[in-house]
Amino acid sequence: MTQEFEALAHSMAANAGRSGLRVHVLPYPLESRPEDEVRRIAREHWEPLLQTLAAEV
Protein backbone atom coordinates (compact mmCIF):
# COMPACT_ATOMS: atom_id res chain seq x y z
CA MET A 1 0.00 0.00 0.00
CA THR A 2 1.05 3.60 -0.16
CA GLN A 3 2.17 5.62 2.85
CA GLU A 4 -1.23 7.27 3.10
CA PHE A 5 -2.89 3.94 3.97
CA GLU A 6 -0.20 2.33 6.13
CA ALA A 7 -1.91 3.03 9.47
CA LEU A 8 -5.23 1.81 8.08
CA ALA A 9 -3.66 -1.42 6.83
CA HIS A 10 -2.13 -2.14 10.24
CA SER A 11 -5.42 -1.33 11.97
CA MET A 12 -7.41 -3.58 9.66
CA ALA A 13 -4.91 -6.40 10.09
CA ALA A 14 -5.08 -6.08 13.89
CA ASN A 15 -8.89 -6.04 13.81
CA ALA A 16 -8.79 -9.28 11.83
CA GLY A 17 -6.46 -10.89 14.35
CA ARG A 18 -3.42 -10.54 12.07
CA SER A 19 -1.44 -7.82 13.85
CA GLY A 20 1.83 -9.32 12.64
CA LEU A 21 0.86 -9.07 8.99
CA ARG A 22 3.82 -7.95 6.88
CA VAL A 23 3.29 -4.87 4.78
CA HIS A 24 5.33 -3.11 2.14
CA VAL A 25 4.85 0.64 1.90
CA LEU A 26 5.23 2.62 -1.31
CA PRO A 27 5.53 6.41 -1.56
CA TYR A 28 2.37 8.46 -1.84
CA PRO A 29 1.03 9.63 -4.20
CA LEU A 30 1.93 7.48 -7.18
CA GLU A 31 -0.83 8.38 -9.65
CA SER A 32 0.32 11.96 -10.11
CA ARG A 33 3.98 11.13 -10.69
CA PRO A 34 5.51 10.87 -14.16
CA GLU A 35 5.73 7.35 -15.57
CA ASP A 36 9.54 7.26 -15.45
CA GLU A 37 9.49 8.12 -11.75
CA VAL A 38 6.88 5.45 -11.00
CA ARG A 39 8.98 2.90 -12.89
CA ARG A 40 12.07 3.93 -10.89
CA ILE A 41 10.13 3.53 -7.64
CA ALA A 42 8.90 0.11 -8.80
CA ARG A 43 12.45 -1.02 -9.57
CA GLU A 44 13.68 0.23 -6.19
CA HIS A 45 10.91 -1.56 -4.32
CA TRP A 46 10.90 -4.87 -6.23
CA GLU A 47 13.55 -6.73 -4.18
CA PRO A 48 12.36 -5.36 -0.81
CA LEU A 49 8.78 -6.31 -1.75
CA LEU A 50 9.86 -9.86 -2.45
CA GLN A 51 11.61 -9.93 0.94
CA THR A 52 8.44 -8.66 2.64
CA LEU A 53 6.52 -11.50 1.02
CA ALA A 54 9.30 -13.91 2.00
CA ALA A 55 9.65 -14.91 -1.63
CA GLU A 56 12.78 -16.55 -2.95
CA VAL A 57 14.11 -15.57 -6.35
Can you describe what's shown?
The protein is flat and about 40 Å long. The protein is an all-alpha fold and about 55 residues long. Helices cover about 50% and strands about 0% of the residues.
Q: Could you provide a short overview of the structure?
A:
By secondary structure, the chain is mainly alpha-helical. 49% of the residues lie in helices and 0% in strands. The radius of gyration is 13 Å and the shape is flat.
Please compute the radius of gyration using only Cα atoms.
Answer: 13 Å
Mean pLDDT: 93
- Our measurement of the CA-to-CA distance between the termini, rounded to an integer number of angstroms, reads 22 Å
General shape: flat
Supply the number of helical segments: 2
Proportion of residues in helical segments: 40-55%
- Major sheet description: none
